[in-house]
Amino acid sequence: MGQYRIPRLNDQLRDEISQLILRSEVKDPRVSTFLTINRVEVSNDLHYAKVYVSSFLADAQVEKGVDGLNNAAGFIQTAIAKKLRIHQFPKLSFYVDTGMKEGFEMVQKLNELEKEQSSGESSKPSDGTAE
Questions:
Q1: What are the counts of helices (DSSP H) followed by strands (DSSP E) for the chain?
Q2: CA dist., res. 22 & res. 131, Å (int)
Q3: Residue-range domains of the chain with CATH
């Protein structure tokens, strides 16, 4: 098996699943076009693939969207298998990935701390001893 086959397949699956969601081909009402496929991890034997999904929607909506994607996994597998033409198509399992949202929130907190620190420094009286 080629050294770059699995990473290339990961990228292809991510792109194809994203396109299916973006074009609203997944008819489950829980699946929003605001869902983002962050990464796909295909096992070395090509039997399974973990698909990590995130969004800036509410956590409950993301979980419902992932449930909808898990329900539509058979349709997604069939639609992509027709395009990719690989011998063993992996079974897709969708999971919520909170890393992107947590990272965004962390940056917001750091920005707030930076603003507080800069406003705190400007409001301190100067230490000068001018009499």
A1: 4, 3
A2: 69
A3: 5-122 (3.30.300.20)
Distance CA 68, CA 55 (A): 14
Helix (H) or strand (E) holding 64: helix 59-71
Q: Which of 30, 19, 27 is nearest to 80 (CA)?
A: 19
Given CA atoms 70, 35, 85, 2 in this order, what sign does their dihedral have? negative
- 8 Å CB contact between 51 and 16: no
Look up the pTM and report it.
Answer: 0.78
| Distance in angstroms (rounded) separating the CA atoms of residues 113 and 70 | 40
pLDDT, one tens digit per residue, over 18-28 is 999 999 999 99
For 94-120, the pLDDT digits (tens) are 999 988 888 888 999 999 999 988 887
Residues in Cβ contact with 59 at an 8 Å cutoff, skipping those fewer than 6 apart? 96, 98
On the 0-12 / 13-18 / 19+ scale of CB atoms within 10 A, 101 is: middle
